[in-house]
UniProtKB/TrEMBL annotation:
One of its GO terms (cellular component) is Rad51B-Rad51C-Rad51D-XRCC2 complex. This is P-loop containing nucleoside triphosphate hydrolase protein. It comes from the Eukaryota. The lineage of its organism: Eukaryota, Fungi, Dikarya, Basidiomycota, Agaricomycotina. It comes from Phanerochaete sordida. Gene3D superfamilies: P-loop containing nucleotide triphosphate hydrolases. Keywords: Nucleus.
C-alpha cells in the first residue's frame, strides 16, 4: 500500500497537481510526513492536507477488508467461467468466488454476453443471480432467454426463472439507495452468488451537474459496499461499463488537450470504485465487426498503472453469437 501512486486515490485534481509539483508521488511519501509539512511543501490549506491523509487512511481500512492475493488463493479455489474463452484464459480458468470482474468495451462489443454467460454458470451451480440494468439495455426476459438456451427441460427453465432477480436503476440516487439496501438484501437472499451491474457508467453520465466531490463519494461508497459484501458473504460481482478517452503526458501522468502527448481508451468510471485486492479489469478491443482482443488492464496481482501496456492479451472472434478464442497474430 505504501508504494501506491497518489493519483489512484480519490483526490481533487488541484490537490493532486499541487502534491505532484511538491514531489509527493506515493502514499509512502505522504505518510512519512505530517499534515503541516505537506501543507507547507505543496502550498495547500491545512484542511486540504488533512483530507489527503484521510484518503490514505481510508485506503488502509479498505485493505483490511480484503486479503492479499496469495492469502485469497489459499482460502478458495472455486472459480466460475464466463463462457468467454479468452476472458477465462486471462483469469486463469475463471473468476474466483468473492472477486469482482469489470468488463469494459465500446457499444456493440460482447460485454453483456460475458455477463450473461457468467450468470448462467452461477445458475448451473444452483446459486441465485441479481441482474441490475442501468441503461435499459437488457430486460428480464432477455436475461432468461439467454440463460435458458441450454436448459435441458421445461422444469430447468422454470427453476432458472425462480433464481434470476432483475431490477433497473438509472440515476445516482437510485444507485445510492441500492448500495444502502444491498447488505440487507444479501441477508434475505443467502443463495445469491452473483451480482451483475450492467452499464454502471450510465448513472454517472445521466446525472447532470454532479460535482467532483459528490462523484468521489459515490465511488467510495460503491467500493466499500462491494468490498464488504465480497468479504463477508463471498458474493461475486461482474460489472459492464463504457470506455472514454483519456489524455496522458509522455510520462503517463494525466494531461490536458494542450499538454497531452497521446490519448488512450479507459473504462469509466475510474478504477477507484473497485475493491482493492479483489478486482480484475478487462477491456474488449474490437479490431473488426467480429474479432478483436481482450486485454487485462489490472488484477489483484497487477495493480492499475495509467499509461502502462496491458498485462495480458488474448484474441477473440464472434461465431454465431459465441465468443471464441481467435487466431493469434503472426509474430
Amino acid at each position: 500500500m505504501s508504494r501506491r501512486p497518489l493519483h489512484t486515490l480519490a483526490l481533487p485534481p488541484a490537490t493532486l497537481s499541487a502534491l505532484t509539483r511538491a514531489g509527493y508521488e506515493t502514499v509512502r511519501d505522504i505518510t512519512s510526513a505530517t499534515p503541516e509539512q505537506v501543507a507547507a511543501d505543496a502550498r495547500l490549506p491545512l484542511n486540504a492536507s488533512q483530507a489527503v491523509f484521510s484518503a490514505t487512511q481510508t485506503q488502509n481500512k479498505m485493505a483490511s477488508l480484503t486479503q492479499s492475493a496469495a492469502a485469497m488463493a489459499q482460502s478458495t479455489s472455486t472459480k466460475y467461467c464466463t463462457g468467454c474463452a479468452p476472458i477465462d484464459a486471462i483469469l486463469d480458468d475463471g473468476l474466483k468466488k468473492g472477486f469482482v470482474l469489470e468488463v469494459s468495451g465500446p457499444p456493440g462489443s460482447c460485454k453483456e454476453s460475458v455477463a450473461l454467460g457468467m450468470a448462467r454458470t452461477f445458475l448451473d451451480d444452483n446459486q441465485d443471480v441479481l441482474f441490475v440494468d442501468m441503461q435499459n439495455m437488457t430486460t428480464a426476459s432477455q436475461v432468461l432467454d439467454f440463460v435458458t438456451k441450454s436448459a435441458s427441460s421445461s422444469s430447468s427453465t422454470r427453476r432458472y426463472a425462480d433464481m434470476v432477480f432483475h431490477t433497473t436503476l438509472h440515476t445516482i440516487s437510485d444507485l445510492m439507495v441500492f448500495l444502502h439496501k444491498l447488505p440487507w438484501y444479501l441477508k434475505e437472499h443467502p443463495r445469491l452468488g452473483l451480482l451483475v451491474l450492467n452499464s454502471l457508467w450510465y448513472p454517472f453520465q445521466s446525472t447532470a451537474g454532479l460535482s467532483y466531490s459528490a462523484r468521489s463519494a459515490v465511488l467510495d461508497r460503491t467500493r466499500e459496499t462491494l468490498a464488504q459484501a465480497c468479504a463477508t458473504t463471498g458474493l461475486s460481482v461482474i460489472i459492464t461499463t463504457q470506455l472514454s478517452t483519456k489524455l496522458l503526458n509522455a510520462d503517463g501522468s494525466p494531461a490536458t488537450f494542450d499538454t497531452g502527448a497521446r490519448a488512450v481508451m479507459v473504462p469509466q468510471p475510474t478504477h477507484t470504485y473497485l475493491p482493492p485486492g479483489r478486482s480484475h479489469r478487462v477491456m474488449i478491443v474490437p479490431r473488426t465487426r467480429t474479432a478483436g482482443v481482450v486485454r487485462l488492464i489490472s488484477s489483484p496481482t497487477h495493480p492499475y498503472e495509467p499509461g502502462q501496456p496491458a498485462h495480458r492479451e488474448e484474441p477473440y472472434e464472434m461465431v454465431r453469437g459465441c465468443v471464441l478464442h481467435g487466431p493469434r497474430a503472426a509474430s
